[in-house]
Amino acid sequence: MYSTYFLLFFEFFKVGLFTFGGGYASLPFLYHICETYNWFSHQELTQLIAISGITPGPIGLNMATFAGFKTLGIIGAFISSVALIVPMMFITSQVFRLYKKFSENEYVKSVLYVLRPTSCALISSVAIKLFYNLVLFNKISINSIDFKSLFIVIVLFLSTFKLKRDPVIYMLIAGFLGVLLKFIK
Amino acid sequence: MEKTNFWNIFKVFFKIGAILLGGGYVIIPIMKQELVEKRNWLSDDEVFDYYSVSQCLPGIIAVNMSILVGYKLRKTKGMLASVFGMALSPFVSIVLVASFLSKIMNIPFIDCFLGGVNLSVIILIYLTLKEMWHKSIVDVFSSFWFVFILLLAIFKVNPAILIIISIVLGLIIQKIRGEKSV
User: Cα–Cα distance between B144 and B134 in angstroms, integer?
Assistant: First the structure.
């Protein structure tokens, strides 16, 4: 039992330390945790991602707190959010002291040069995974392609040409489409 | 100008955490309003600088920005105030939502609604990628590296290992480049 507390702290410490590129960049780590331990199921993870997007607070922090709650209740939520924040407090406050030089440092530039495509690839892998799970091989669908889901994704994709980059708008549109399509056989 | 003591910093960041929805770049207008316009604790330029530095740092962008602001205002004490302020409302709201999850799931059509929201994550990732793309995929090597890491990630290689490999490779590249120029 104690080892789960420790593991939970350790895993989310890693998420805080290795996530580059904002909230969704932590998704590959959450999938990794989900597949390594039996703390929460794939389905619970997808549910948790959706809810974290429409609750107040940075989405990365919400997802970590929620995942901790799923694992060990309120104590788990506390452990995972603290574990996520601790590495940032150490690194970021140190960087602040060197901050002007930090972004001009040749080593930092070179590391970011390699790290940026890595982050893009990691996030893309999550998008592919989600597309595969939700659209192509949704267990609820019949012909292995869920046309309603595909329709929602296409509508959202088309609206990216018209709408501003506010995540909440897309979440709300998709949510309401989800409800509307329920009535169409 | 409001005093920058522990309690005031905590209050401001509690508010920012509570009105922030979604994450990422949304933090910029909120921080400008609360910290620059209302309180004059920062300048516009600082907000943008902190955002660009935060993007290069490990972790959550909004949390890193609050650490930078808190540290700037009152060193370690300010940092603790801003971070705990920022983390409090997500913590409370997630614990509440998670505790009543089974009740929430009983609301009619909520499962269809969340199912739709899930699909929007695909598009939100696409938008994040679109923004990162031109800064990330800049030449032949970075395109090759993108495909290479993508394949490894699809075959379930631990993402932490992929990040560490990338950091080490970046250091090696600079090391070699540095020796060549000398």
Answer: 15
Window 159-178 of A, Cβ < 8 Å to B: 160, 165-168, 170-171, 173-178
Report d(CA A60, CA B60) in Å as an integer. 6
The residues, any chain, with a CB within 8 Å of residue A142's CB and separated by 6 or more, are none
d(CA B11, CA A159): 37
- B115 and B153 in a single domain? The answer is no
Q: What is the pLDDT of residues A8-31, one digit of tens each?
A: 999 999 999 999 877 888 999 999
Cα–Cα distance for residue pair B170/A146, rounded to 1 Å: 42
Co-location of B57 and B24 in the same domain: yes
- Provide the number of structural domains found in chain B: 3
Please check whether residues B24 and B87 belong to one and the same domain. yes
Which among A14, A66, A182 has the least Cβ separation from residue B112?
A: A182
Any alpha helices (H) in chain B, and if so which ranges? 6-19, 27-31, 44-56, 61-99, 101-104, 110-136, 140-154, 159-181
Closest to A64 measured CA to CA, from A99, A105, A17, A127:
A17
**CB contacts, 8 Å: B27 with chain A:** 58
Q: What is the pLDDT of residues A66-78, one digit of tens each?
A: 999 999 999 999 9
Tokens of B16: 């920012």
Whether the complex's predicted ipTM is more than 0.95 is answered with no
Are B53 and B116 in a shared domain?
no
All residues of chain B having their beta carbon less than 8 Å from the beta carbon of residue A122 are 149, 153, 159, 162-163
Domain that residue B128 falls in: 100-135
State the Cα–Cα distance between residues A158 and A68, nearest whole angstrom: 35
Residue B34 is given by DSSP the state: I
A41, with CB counted inside 10 A (0-12, 13-18, 19+), is exposed
Nearest residue to B64 (alpha-carbon basis) of B53, B72, B77: B53
